Amino acid sequence: VGFLLAAAEESEGFVPPSAEDFVYPPYPGMPDSILFTKPVVQLFFSVIIIAGFFLYVTRRLQLVPGRAQFFAEGMYTFVRNGLGRDIIGSKDFQPFVPLLFSLFTFILVNNLFGIIPLIQFPTMSRVAFPYVLAAIVYIVFNYVGIKRHGFGGYMRMMTMPPNVPAWIYPILTPIEFASNFIFRPITLSLRLFANMFAGHLLLLVFILGGEYLLLHTPFPTNLVSIPAFLLAIVFTFFEALVEVLQAYIFTLLAALYIGGSLAEEH
Amino acid sequence: VDGQRDPVAPPARGGDGWTVITLLLAGVTVYGGLGWLLDRWLGTELFLPVGLLAGVAGAIYMVYKRF
To answer: What are all long-range contacts of A95-99, with beta carbons under 8 Å and residues at least 24 apart?
Structure first.
């Protein structure tokens, strides 16, 4: 963002934020590769935060939980019961709790980076990260489905909707196939990516716009920066909500897809 | 860790509103795409709108059947 401000000062005109603001150069002194950019460092940082926190809490569990233990247990119970057991079903959910819990905490922390001061960049607004997460979910729900029902049974379940007359299958099967095998992973990853991307862009518009109005416009006009900054604060809280919600929705859909693959044939 | 809720809750099956989105997208692209290909092949401008409508109709029918 710094170079953008510098550019704005030089050109004496407001440069609106764009998709280019999401592309970070490698850190100075690092090889010219995507492996040493800010989002990647955030990714590793998030893993350290999550693993560190939960290891710290679980090492010193007490019968009467302290604040950190209460928080950790609450989050675990929420994912285990609310997303695992209630959606995948009490018979099968247990092997998937680690996956769901990792997905939820990982996405949550990386999303919240978007509004944490000094970091202020949601990792998932780089589309490669949601792609990989969706690919993991895609592999898992297809694998467990084929393992449970066999390849033929699984394909029948995923492409032939129940309760319709037989002559209509040639028409509906392509739709069901595309819906389950092509659009599921696409919408899963793009929903997360687009929400984070748009939210960050929104904050950039209000904050950079406010900065420009305040510092680069004459007296009566620069007062307009006050509502701009107020809206930036409002939208920061709104982003906090969206970031938590998107982490929840991604995990919810992962659980729904896995649960759907494991469900009984009809 | 277990709460007081029913321990043998049945798994959710297709009961998610999110399926509607993927079904509609799939219907439009599959039959819209088919119509577009037919149009390119035959040099007409008829099958793309027909395919789009047919795809939407099929998707809505499936949503109706599912819920």
So the answer is: A96/A140, A96/A255, A96/A258, A99/A136, A99/A140, A99/A254
Cα–Cα distances in Å, from A190 out to A20, A128, A133, B18? 18, 10, 11, 14
Percent share of chain A, pLDDT over 70: 94
For residue A97, count other CB atoms closer than 10 A to its CB.
Answer: 18
Structure-block tokens of residue A254: 């992962």
**Cβ–Cβ < 8 Å for A203, A226:** no
- Closest-approach residue (CA) in chain B for A266: B13
Q: How confident is the model at residue A207 (pLDDT cuts 50, 70, 90)?
A: very high
Q: A83 with A238: CB under 8 angstroms?
A: no
Task: Give the integer Cα–Cα distance in Å for A129 and A135.
Answer: 10
Residue B48 token pair: 């793309």
What is the sign of the dihedral through the CA atoms of A171, A175, A176 and A177? positive
Interface of B to A at Cβ within 8 Å reads 1-3, 5, 7-14, 16, 18-19, 21-23, 25-27, 29-31, 55, 58-59, 61-62, 65-66
- 């690919």: which residue's tokens? A135
Is pTM beyond 0.90? Reply is no
Contact A129, A245 (CB under 8 A): no
For chain B, the average pLDDT equals 78
Cα A109 to Cα A237: distance, rounded to the nearest angstrom = 16
Which residues in chain A are contacts of B12 at CB distance < 8 A? 86-87, 89, 256, 259-260
What is d(CA B18, CA A107) in angstroms, rounded to the nearest whole number? 19
Residue of B13, B31, B65 with shortest CB distance to A163? B65
Tell me which chain B residues have a C-beta less than 8 angstroms from the C-beta of A176: 23, 26, 62
Contact B16 A176 (CB under 8 A): no
Question: What band does A154 get if pLDDT is binned at 50, 70 and 90?
Answer: very high
ipTM comes to: 0.74
pLDDT score at A21: 86
